Amino acid sequence: MGDFSDLLVYKKSFELAMTIFELSKSFPKDEMYSLTDQIRRSSRSTNICLVEAYRKRRYKAHFISKLSDSDMENSETKGWLKFAFECKYLSEDQYEKLTTQSDEVGKLLNHMMSNPEKYGVA
What we know:
Blueprint: H1 8-24, H2 32-55, H3 60-86, H4 92-114
Helix pairs in contact: 1-2, 1-4, 2-3, 3-4
């Protein structure tokens, strides 16, 4: 089994977090400690919880729990994306692309939770 960075879900969640980081640079300054900070944090946490889960894959329950945390952070990110769109900080095209990416990450995380043995869990 390779490193966590070989996982498709790792690559997709990292890309999503970095895209959100770049786009959120244009959010209004008065959102810095609210929406901007929150959406960056949750999108990064999606990725980092996945990394933690991968390191805990020796323990099935812990692996699934950390993946569940990652999925929760991904759902939070999707909620913040809706706020960013409704506040007109994202175009409809950007919003659609980002929510599609978030949905893909969620599906991959759910596959991992449903099939832990495919990821080195005994």
